[in-house]
Amino acid sequence: MKKLINISFHAIFWLWNLTFLAIVYAGMLPLIGFVLILATLDGEIPVEFSLTFLALIAVPTVCTVIGARRLRKQPTELMRLFYGVEAPLFLLCLLRLFLLRELTPASNLILGTVLLSILAFSVELLRGYDERQQTIAWLQMVAHSLMLVIGIYVGLLLLFYALPAAATWIVAFLRFEWLGHLWYMAADGMSSGLWLTHLYLFCLLILSYFLFFVLSATWFGITLTCGGPSRRETG
């Protein structure tokens, strides 16, 4: 069972990174990348958008290199790198590039806090928790508190959308109308030669969502029943 879980971890990390790299290098870079950079040099577009686009390219590239060189034999750490660093950063870059055109002071504060939390998590992921140096340990504890606050804030914010969306999706799922749309997508993909891409993305999304929720529920159950790792160690 453990071997199967480790294989799933590797599959999700490397398949998603392959997808991200294909999107940015084969899709976004030739289509909008060069145009965006030229428009920035001409002064038509603010520099922030080009920097965000460069970050969008750098995130999957750097995470792929880190995963290949430092974490390829640690599947659990690969999952932490993907779900805790790469996916949030990639999503933030997409939101900044396509949705958040003008940033207010409040949105700057929120984005800065989220980026600081991701940075702190990245440092701890690569270096570990430093208990011997009290200053660094205190900084990491403050970063953990910041991550908790951001997690609660994002969770409460998404709760307003998650509950209505979940109710709508459950009703739509029980009607089984999605089977017709799925069949149409498959038939359209076969006729256009893209059915393998549709099947690949569908299976990858299902596997990622399933594993994410299973891991979250399992860890939450372990924390409730056993008191978490820290209480087990101190007890």
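Next protein, fold it too.
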Amino acid sequence: MSESFSLAFSNSLFKKSITSFIFGLEFSAVMLLLGNGGNVPWLPPVLVFSVIGFFLVSSLLFPFIWHFLERRQKINSEKIFGFLYGGIRYCTAFNLAGFGWKKYYGLQFVVPEEVSNRAMNQQTGEWLTWFYFGYSHTYGILIASIQIIGSTLLLFRKTLLFGALILFTLLLNLTLINIFYEMNAGALLQSILLTIGVLFLILPDYKKLIAFFFETKTLLPSFHFNRLVKNAIRISVLVLSLAFTIYLKSLIR
């Protein structure tokens, strides 16, 4: 990518639109958290979704105004980008920390007694998952701690990438659980929005990550065999483990 193309992209309407819209999404996620499923008296659902609708529409329209003013040199795009990136960071951190604190105070992974008394084959995937995670209080606290510590790391520029990587692995796993275990739409939406937000924070440093994970040579000692032998050993690890698994399967009558 040439320097001129990179500069053009950095000021493009597309980048402005993506950044603005993701800020709108992350702010919407915060509003959903605050709304708490309609259980907060002073924040009724109609108000929550009205604010969400306003911010989403604004996030779609604002980039065009921004781009127009930038072309006439009447707006500082660097400051706008800084504000939006900061907004995404802080909204994402607030949301994740909020879910973490909920676990500390027993507001998540709680299964009503009338549900827990049902037979396992009568439970939905959502309640089975909720009961499974709630079975170990220590595990729930561990997840909560990762969410809170990761959120804290997002608040500082030097630890932003580290925190985002930790949270991305956690959120991707939670999103897959929410999808395949048929969790409620609200939980799925929150996990998707948070995953998008964290991924967006990671992407500016993707070149650093590629260099770190794929171009950095390990200092560990290795086999001193030629490439053919090394590849044969690598393949044998997978093939032999598969063969042993097939053997174990054959023992089951």
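About the second fold: The longest helix spans residues 77-104.
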